[in-house]
Every structure is written in C-alpha cells, then in structure tokens.
Design a protein that fits this description.
Elements: H1 14-47, H2 49-56, H3 62-73, H4 113-126, H5 130-147, H6 151-162, H7 186-192, H8 202-220, H9 223-230, H10 233-236, H11 242-282
Length: about 280
C-alpha cells in the first residue's frame, strides 16, 4: 500500500502577509521589552537595597519578621537551622544565640522618648514594622555603649547595608544587619560566643560590626576613613560616597532623637506646671 504525504498550501494575499509581519514584529518588540524590564529591575534591586527590600520585604511579611527577630534575639530560634529539623524540647535546646551579657529581660526594656521617635522615623522611612525596629534600636544603644561606637552610627550603617533586614545576604557572602563577612571575621564571632554563633543573629552581627567600625576608626584616625575601610574602599579605592551617605543618615537620626527628647521634656514640664497650679488652688 502506497503512502502519500499531504501538504496543506495556504495562499496569502499581500495584505495578509503584511499583517502577519506586523504581528511578528510586535511580538519581537514585546520580547525585547520584557528582557530589558527584567534586567532593569534586577539591576535596580542589586544596587538599591531600599528598593530590593520594598520588593522582597514588603508589608505582608512585616508581622512574621517582627516575630522572627524577637525570637532570634531571645535565643529561641537558630536562623541557620534547617526548616524541617525535628522539634527540640526547650530543656534540651543546644543553641545559645545570645551571650550572657544580653539577657532576655533586656529585649523588652522600655525605650526612652528619643529612641521611640527614632523607631517611628525609621519604621516609616524603611517600611519595617515598629515592633522589629524596637529590638534593633534597643540593641544598637546597648551594643554601642559597650563597644564604644555611637548607636546612631550603628543604625545608619544598618540602614545603608541591609535596610534593617537581619536576614539579608549578599552575593559575595556578607550577612545580616551590618553585612558582615563571617569567614573574614570568624575570630570576632568566636570571641563573642565560642563555637555557638550565627552571623544572622542580630546581636552577634551588630556587635561584630561595631567592633570593626571601632577598630577601623582607631586605626585611621577618623570616622570617615574608618567607614571607607568598612566598605572595602581601602582596597578598591572607590567608596561610591559611602561615608557621606552613612553620616548623612546618622545626622538625621540624631536630629530625630533630639526632637523626641525635647518634646518629651516639654510635655513633662507642662504637666508638672499644671500639677503645681492644681496643688496651689487645692491648698
């Protein structure tokens, strides 16, 4: 039995051919536009931490983030543990993510009026929940005092490096709030908590970051040059305006802090005045 191949021949007139070419051209342009848009978005997220956080760290995850950072800060969660790891009874927890010097009670210590104002400002500016920022601000003031680094400088570096995302990680291996390289600064982590540390732990990360800033500032003789070293400009030679950006944010945080303290002091004076007048009339 013979087999025959059947060919379907469609004849198109000139108008149909032109229409077909237009459709093909438009599809090609849409494809190119999609590639360019994707590349542009990827580039924007790579060079702009704030934009990246808005995309991947938006409002719907803020409640989860606030809960996670509090749990990490109080040693209840090991951020490096596998998600499917078997549950461990509290009495047998093997991880101690917070050094003894930072107790659980201190994670809930009240903020002063200036710190509260800073939390409100940073929460609005960086779109991070105030609950999470309370923990970070509280840590910054405690760590800054103990490591002899201005707390607002620490907060400014955190703002630039991670946008207040404690679980941030860069392609080159930097991790956490202050984007520390664990392999390079392993000795500092070990000194804080020998054999039991995590670069994603907010307290560990912030303390090591503060130590690095303190050390570089002492070596170079100025905060500006210390920040250049911190960002690696001592090797590359180009800091891309990093010191100016950090110090600009620090100046704003300082201003917000002072405003919060002044407003609270004025309100306290007014309240005391009213009480004094009331007592006078009662007497």
């Amino acid at each position: 039995m013979k087999q025959y191949d059947t060919f379907l021949t469609v004849e198109l007139n000139e108008g149909q051919i032109k229409a077909f070419k237009k459709v093909r051209n438009w599809m090609s342009l849409l494809g190119i536009a999609s590639v360019l848009l994707g590349a542009g978005t990827a580039t924007a997220m790579a060079v702009n931490p704030e934009f990246r956080n808005k995309v991947f760290f938006s409002e719907p995850v803020q409640a989860v983030f606030a809960n996670q950072i509090d749990m990490v800060s109080t040693g209840l969660v090991n951020p490096d543990a596998q998600l499917n790891a078997p549950a461990v009874q509290p009495a047998k927890v093997a991880f101690n993510l917070i050094p003894a010097k930072y107790s659980v009670a201190e994670t809930h210590k009240s903020l002063n009026p200036g710190q509260k104002e800073v939390v409100e400002y940073l929460s609005e500016r960086y779109r991070v929940s105030s609950e999470a920022l309370e923990t970070i601000v509280r840590l910054a003031y405690k760590v800054g005092r103990e490591e002899q680094v201005e707390p607002t400088l620490i907060l400014a570096v955190v703002a630039v490096e991670s946008g207040f995302n404690p679980f941030a990680a860069s392609p080159v291996g930097a991790k956490g709030l202050m984007q520390i390289m664990p392999k390079i600064h392993k000795d500092k982590f070990e000194e804080i908590s020998p054999g039991d540390w995590s670069a994603l732990n907010p307290e560990h990360n912030m303390r090591v970051g503060a130590q690095i800033i303190h050390e570089y500032t002492r070596r170079t003789g100025s905060i500006q040059t210390g920040l250049r070293w911190y960002v690696g400009a001592a090797v590359s030679g180009n800091d891309n305006g990093y010191p100016a950006k950090v110090l600009g944010i620090k100046a704003k945080i300082d201003s917000v802090y002072r405003t919060g303290r002044l407003v609270a002091a004025r309100e306290a004076d007014e309240k005391a005045g009213v009480t004094k007048v009331a007592t006078h009339f009662e007497g």
